[in-house]
Amino acid sequence: MKQQLAILGGGESGVGTAILGKKKGFEVFVSDFGKLKEKYKQVLINNEIEWEEEGHSEEQIFAATLVMKSPGIPDSAPIVQKLHKSGVNVVSEIEFASKFTTATIVGITGSNGKTTTASLTYKLLSDGGLNVALGGNIGKSFAEQVAEDTYKNFVLELSSFQLDGIENFAPHIAVLTNLSPDHLDRYDYKYENYIASKFRILMNQTSKDYFIYNADDEEILKWLSNNPIKSKPLPFSTKKELKQGAYKRNNEIIIKINNTEYTMPIATIGIQGEHNVKNAMAASTVATLLRIRKQTIRESLEGFQGVEHRLEKVLKINNVLYVNDSKATNVNATFFALDSMENPTVWIVGGVDKGNDYTELLPLVNEKVKAIICLGVDNQKIINAFGNVIDTIIEADSMPMAVEIAYKLAERNNTVLLSPACASFDLFENYEDRGRQFKDAVRNL
Q1: Among the four 151, 194, 220, 275, which has the fewest Cβ within 10 Å?
Q2: Architecture in CATH of 4-91
Q3: pTM of the model
């Protein structure tokens, strides 16, 4: 008898898992509490996979031997609670798909920088001639790419939600870019629960595997001092010299691994900023472990232009620069964005608050920001946080309205920065939708 696979959520993760499940001989059923996007419906229909939307047929789901839960569905969802109680095995797409590939996996997680680091790592490996795919929390689903069965290497961007659903998944190389409070609404508002979730990336690694991490991050160091790890540690730092790993000396990155050392001038990296030096260190360390030539690494870093929605320069209008940082969905990411602003800034902020504490932004806001535009359904927390330091705080309920207000407030040599510090689900489909709407509104000025 065929094994039954039930999939909760019919988005990129769910549909990719359905394709792989069917290929591997499972009886597959996809169930979504909301509405399915047309493109995903068509894929399911074309692959003759059974599906439903706007509700869950519990009988069919509970008959399954295995359930894959999409990362967007919290463990607190009633159906997930019931599944756990009844002892049904609930896993993430990453766990399910990893069983069907022998490829070398690089897993990259962190509160910020993981998309840039994953995209950059993928570029370095791809430019170096490796047969490699990019997936996880970015681009095409990991499961669907495993189903294609053509890749020898994967670079996976992994969110805490994806790591929550793993049991045996073990990347050969794990990267942790940094830690800062994020998604606390999913972790009982306890930072330590979120941190533990990120470190699940290590839990199945062995002494043959590697762990690349930010040695300037106090929370990472604290966790490592209390928890022994099996994999080989390779730290990176912009503040101190290291015996092994990557560090900064003068204006160069030094990478030391297994008695080999090479240097690279920071000035030639295509993306600027201290946080991007760290992202480049992490990616270069991965590339060095996978034997990419130094020359290739240098050239790739020079040619990398960054990722969409991350401090992306959109247009200059009347000498005002418009910058799309829609991917800044937490306070720490917005901290990097504001810190990199060189001109007086009109800051567009707001969305779904995930338990944010804005106090660490106050000094930067005081120094850099001339006006705030709140773009969210409930903006009171932002108004309370910055009302004493910023005179002009205006609320907007759509992106065109926010950009129109910014256009009126900004003067020559100012910057208009969309860096929301929040999730986007109150007014937008996701952060990409929010960023594209911002770019469209700017182009329509």
Answers
A1: 151
A2: 3-Layer(aba) Sandwich (3.40)
A3: 0.82
